[in-house]
Amino acid sequence: MGWLCLLFLLFTTCQFNSTCSSSSFSSSSSSFSSRHLCHPDDSYALLQFKKAFSIRTLSLYSNRTISWQKGKDCCAWSGVTCEKRTGHVISLNLHFGGLQGNIHSNNSLFFLRHLRRLDLSRNDFQGSPISSQFGGFVSMTHLDLSNSNFSGPIPTEISHLSNLVSLNLSQAAVTLDTLSLNRIVQNLTNLRELDMAAVDMSSVVPDSFNNLSSSLTTLILFHCHLQGKFPESIFHPPNLRQVDLGSNYNLTGYFPKSNWSSPLESLDLSHTRISVDWHHLTRNFRSLRYLFLKNCTFVGSYLASLGNLTQIMLLDLSYNGFGGHIPWSLLNLERLKDLDLSGNNFVGQFPEVVRNSTGISYLYEFSEGPLVGPIPRHLTKLTLYNNSLNGTMPSWLGSLPSLEELNLRRNQLSGNIFEFQSRSLSRLDLSYNKLHGLVPRSIYELVNLGWLDLSSNNLSGTVEFEKFSKLQSLVRLNLSSNHLSLSFNNLSNNTWLELSTLDLSFCNISEFPYFLRASPNLEALYLSHNRIQGNLPKWLLDVGKESLTYLDLSHNFLTGTVELRWKNLQYLDLRNNSIQGKLPIPPPSTFYFTISNNQLIGEIPPIICSLSFLQILDLSYNRLSGKIPQCIGNFSQRLSVLDLRKNKFDGIIPNTFSTRNVLRNLNLNGNQLEGPLPLSLLTCRELEVLDLQVLMLRSNKFHGGIGNPKTRFPFQNLRIMDLSNNQFSGLLPTKYFEHLTTMKNLQKQELQYMGEQYCEDTVVVAIKGIEIEMVKIQNFFTIIDFSNNGFSGEIPNVIGKLKSLKGLNLSHNELTGTIPDSFGDLSNLEWLDLSSNALVGEIPEQLTNLTSLGKFNVSKNRLVGAIPTGKQFDTFENNSYSGNIGLCGFPLSKTCVPHPSPPSSLQQEDDLDNVNGFDWKIVLMGYASGLVIGISVGYLALSNGRSNGLLKVIRKTRWGKIMKITHRAA
Question: Which domain of life is it from (predicted)?
C-alpha cells in the first residue's frame, strides 16, 4: 500500500505542477521494478502448489522448489519469472523438478492467471488427467507438459489458448481424438511448434492436419499410432523446418511430386509406410541436414540422387534391404557427421586412401579409382552393423579426429584391428566379425571410451586388465567368445565406478574377477562357460547388491551351497554346475531362473510362489524330491516354461493351473508322479489360450481309449502329437485329425524357430527311427507318432489332408484294412512307418508322388501285390517290406505273378460324435512317468542325411545304429 500511495502522490503532484515530466514517473517505476516484489496472491499460490507434491531429491532432478520459502520474494525463486511492473508470475519452469503427486483441477497452479510460459516436463504426476483448467491461461504462449506421467484424453479446452506459439504434450498414456485435434488446428493459428510424440492418435483422421498454422516450424508426431493416408500438404508450409512422423507403422502416403523448394531441415519417416521417392525427395528438400529413413518404403531409383543433399549432416538409411556396395561417392563426406547404414545387405570393402601430389588424402573405391572424396574428418558416428562387409578394417578410420562412435558389429571383417591414432572414441563395437590377432595397445589409451565390445571374434593373446586402468568411463566391457587369456594381477587398486555390464563368457578364466568388488553400479555380469571352481566368494554376494539385475554363471564348476543377496535380480542362470544343498530362491523381481543340471536336494519351498513375475523356471536334472507345490499353478498367468524333469518328485501334478495360463512348455518327465492328468491341462474350455503346439505323452503308462469329446477341441495348432509307447487302445481318433488345422496348412519353410529369447526348449522325438533331442529347431516340423500302442481298426483317410506332415508313425499297433490312397497327397512327408500291424491289400501307387520320402517301412503286415516302382521307391531296401509274404517285385527277389484281389475289409465306424473336443475315457499316470507339453519346439529335418539345427541322437530304435550327432545350424 505504501508503494501505491507513493505513486498516487506522484500522480497528483504532476497534475498541479507543470514542471512534472514523464521522466520523473519513469524513474519511479524503474525504482519499483528493480525490487521485483512478487504479487502476494501469486506467492501464496506457489507455496500451496509446492505443498501438493513430494519432491524427489535424486541428483537427476533440479529440485528448484527448495528455494521457495515463505516471507521471501517469489520473483527471486528458482524457476519463477515475474512481470516487472505488476509483480505477477508470468513464467514457471519446473522442468525435471522432482515433483511427485497428483495435480487436480482445484490445484493452486491455476490461480496464476497471468502465466505466459509454463514448463512442467519430466515430473511425475502419477497418471493425473490433463485438467481442463489448463485452458484458462489465456495469455499462454509456451506450454510444456511432456513426459510427466499424465494420462487420459487431451481436453478440448487446450484449444482456448489462442496465443500459443509452442505446445508440447508428448507422452504415452495420453490420447487425442479428431474433434479435439480439429479445434486445436482451427484455433491455434499462431502455433510454431507442435510436439505430440507418443500421444495415442489411433482414432484421428490424418486429414485433420491439413489446416495447421502456416507459421508452423516444428511438427513432431513420433509414435502416435497414426494410420491411413497422411496429407501431402503437410510438407508445404513456408516456414516448416522439422517434421517427425517416425514409428507410425500403419501411416501411408506419398511425397508431393511438384517442382517446389522446401526449407525443411530435419525429416523423420522411419518405420512408416509413406512412399519415399529419391528423385523428388532430393529435388524438393535440398536444405535437409538431418534425414531419418530407417525401415521405410522406397520407390523409384536406388539412391541415385543422394548427392543432391549437399547440406546433409546426419543420414540414417538403416534396415531398408539395400544391397551392393556402399555408395561412398554419393555421400557428402565433407559435411557428414553421423552415418547409419546398418541392417542392410551391403557388401564389399571399405575405400582406400590415396594421397595426391600435394600430399592431400582422398578416398578411392579401389586403389586406382573411382574417386570417392576427401576423408570424412568431421564424422562423429559411423554405424554399419548387420551387413556383409568384408576385407580388413581401413586404418584411416582410426585417424578420424572427431569420431566418437564406431559400430561395425556383425559383418565379415577380417585381419587385425588397427591402432587408433585419435583418442576421441567413446563407443567401439567390433563384435561378431572374423578379426584376429592381439587387442591393439591404443585401445587402452582411449580415455573417453564408455562402451567396448570385441566379442565373438578370433582375437588371441593375453589381456592384462590393469591396462584398462585409464578407461575410468567404462560402462560396458565385452570380451567374450574369443581365444584370449585374461590376467587379473596387479588390480588391487583399480576401480571402475561406472561399470554396469561385464561379459567375460567363454574367456577360459578360472577365478572371479576380484576388481568387481569396487564396481558399485554393476547391473549385468556374464561369466558363463569358464573354468571357475569352488563356492561363490562372499565378497561377490555384496557386489551390486542393489543394482545387479542380470547374472549368468552357468557352465562352470561351482560347488557348495548358494546364498542369494541380490535384491533386484531379474535374470539368474546357474545351470550346468555342481551346486549342492537346497534350492536357493531369488528375489521377487526375477522373471528368468534356471539352475538345471546341478546337485540340489530337498523339496521346492512354497516361497517360490512369491516370484510373481516369473516367466521361465527350469529346475531339471537335479535331485529334488517331495511334492510339487500346488501354488505353482496359481502364478501360471505369467509362467511360460516350467521344466521339472529328471528329479525325484512324487505325488500328483498340481491341479491349480489357471484357465488364463500362458504355459507353453510343461515338462515333468522322469519323476515318480502318479494319479490322473489335471483337468485344467486337458479338458478346460479355455485351454486354447495355451496355443499348444506340442503334445508329448510318450513312454508313460497311459491306457484305455480316446473317447467322445465333451468340449471344444483345444489343440488345433498342434505340430507334434506323440502318444507312442503307451497302452492306448481302440480306434484312431478320426475327429481329432480333422481339426489339426496347422498340420493341414503348408508352412513356408523359412529359417524360423519356435521358442523365445531366453529359453531354448528341448524335446525328444523319433525321426526316421532315431530318437533325437531337439534343441533349436525349425517351426514347420510336424509329426504324428502313435507307435507302440494297441490301436485297432482302419487308418482314417482324413490323415491324407495333413499336408504339412513331415513324419507319420503308426507302427506296432493292431491296425487293419488298407493303406489309404490319400497318403499320396502328403507331399512333405519324409518318413512313414506302418510296420508291425495287420494291414492288407496293395501298396497304393499314389505313394510314388512322395518325392521327399526318405524312410518307408511297411514290414510285418499282410500286404500283397507288386511294390510300386520309380522315384523314391527305387531307393528303399528289402527290410522296408520284410514279413509280407504276398509282396513281390523290386527290391525283393520274388517275381510278381497275377493273383486275386484281397477281400475288402469292413468300413470303420465313426469313433467320435459330431462334437469337437478332447477327452480321455481312461488316462492314468504311473510311476517313472513323464509329461511334456510345450510349443517351443521346431524342426530339424533329417532329409538326405543332413540336419538344420543342433541334434543329440540318444539311441537307435529300429532303423539306425547307436550314434552321437552334433550339428550346428548354418
Answer: Eukaryota
Q: How far is CA 56 from CA 130, 270, 521, 692, in A?
A: 22, 36, 20, 47
DSSP 3-state of 465: helix
Q: Determine which helix (DSSP H) or strand (DSSP E) holds 11, and give its type and residue range.
A: helix 2-16
The closest alpha carbon to 201, from 231, 232, 161, 170, belongs to 170
867 has pLDDT over 90: yes
Q: What is the mean pLDDT of residues 146-160?
A: 96
Per residue in 524-579, pLDDT (tens digit) is: 999 999 999 999 999 999 999 999 999 999 999 999 999 999 999 999 999 999 99
- Nearest residue to 234 (alpha-carbon basis) of 218, 246, 223: 218
Q: Which residues of 257-269 are buried (b: 16+ CB within 10 A; e: fewer)?
A: eeeeebebbbbbb
Residue bearing cell 529346475: 619
Residue 822 in any domain: the answer is: yes
CATH number of the domain to which 143 belongs: 3.80.10.10
Mean pLDDT over residues 377-395, rounded?
Answer: 95
CA dist 889 and 469 (Å) reads 79
Cell output for 307: 548427392
In a domain, 696, yes or no: yes
**Four-residue CA torsion sign, 342, 348, 350, 354:** negative
Rg (CA), the chain: 37
Q: Work out the widest C-alpha separation in the chain, in whole angstroms.
A: 143
Taking the alpha carbons of 503, 507, 512, 513 in that order, is the dihedral positive or negative? negative
The three-point CA angle 188-189-191 to 5° equals 70
Q: What's the N-to-C CA distance of the chain in angstroms?
A: 87
Contact 115/137 with Cβ under 8 angstroms?
yes
179, 204, 229 - which closes a domain: 204
Task: Note whether 372 and 365 are within 8 A (CB).
Answer: yes
Question: Among residues 180, 204, 228, which one ends one of the domains?
Answer: 204
Asked if the structure places residue 687 within a domain, the reply is: yes
pTM, entire model: 0.75
Grid coordinates of 274: 509413406
Please provide the average confidence, as pLDDT, over all residues in the chain: 81
- Can you give the residue range of the structural domain that contains 99? 37-204
Burial class (CB in 10 A: 0-12, 13-18, 19+), 285: buried
pLDDT of residue 490: 74
The one-letter code for the residue type at 232 is E
Tell me the Ramachandran region of residue 482: left when phi exceeds 0, alpha when psi lies from -120 to 50, beta otherwise: beta
Helix residue spans in 466-573 (DSSP H): 538-541
Whole-number pLDDT of residue 920: 41
Distance of CA 68 to the CA centre of its chain: 45
Amino acid symbol at 210: N
> Is residue 383 domain-resident?
no
Residue 380 is predicted with a pLDDT of: 96
Please tell me the predicted confidence (pLDDT) of residue 967. Answer: 31
Nearest to residue 288, comparing CAs of 304, 267, 269, 261? 267
What percentage of the chain has pLDDT greater than the value 90?
Answer: 54
In tens, the pLDDT along 201-219 reads 999 999 989 888 889 999 9
E strands of 208-337, at which residues?
218-220, 227-229, 242-244, 250-254, 266-268, 273-277, 290-292, 297-299, 314-316, 323-325
- Enter the DSSP assignment of 324: E
Strand partners, 934: 665, 694
Show the beta-strand stretches assigned E in 752-885.
Answer: 763-767, 770-776, 783-785, 790-794, 807-809, 814-816, 831-833, 840-841, 855-857, 862-866
The total number of structural domains that make up the chain:
2
Mark 566-585 as b/e (b = at least 16 C-beta within 10 Å). beebbbbbbbbbebbeebbe
User: What cell was used for 111?
Assistant: 490461480
**What span, in angstroms and rounded, lies between the C-alpha atoms of 903 and 905?**
6
